[in-house]
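Let us work through a complete example step by step.
Step 1: write down the sequence.
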Amino acid sequence: MTKRLLLFVSLGILPMLAACGSAIEDERTPTSVACRLGPDCDHKWARAVFWVQQNACYKIEKVDPARIQTFGPYGKSEGTAITIQKVLTGDGGAQLFINVSCANIVTCYPRVAAQKISFLEYVSGASNLVVPMHPPFPQAHPIPGLGDPSVLLR
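Step 2: predict the structure and record it as tokens.
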């Protein structure tokens, strides 16, 4: 009985420790790209919109000159929701901040740190590859009044 209890407790704790490990990794990942107001910021903002379209697990809910935001996250989904925010720095520049979140406390797919790194590399111009990182969710479109968040998944 004691061995079963120990096994049960260890199986319950290991996923939580794994989640803690990914949270530590995430805190070390850079979260913004700098740009100069004008053509530089406009170019990087356009790349940010394209990156979100290709990599977010949820469809884009809002795009304006200062914010890109997807729907979600919902329920216990492992899929990531993304928000990009442009913050003026006061010296003729801006920072494009990325926030990636998911509703599942154990795991997110793709990993939050991997998405942040992919975003930073693509938007800064260090990489021209936009490889969709999301799992093969079925294509769906938001239907007003339906109330089922699964229709908002890509």
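Step 3: interpret the result. The first strand starts at residue 32 and ends at 36.
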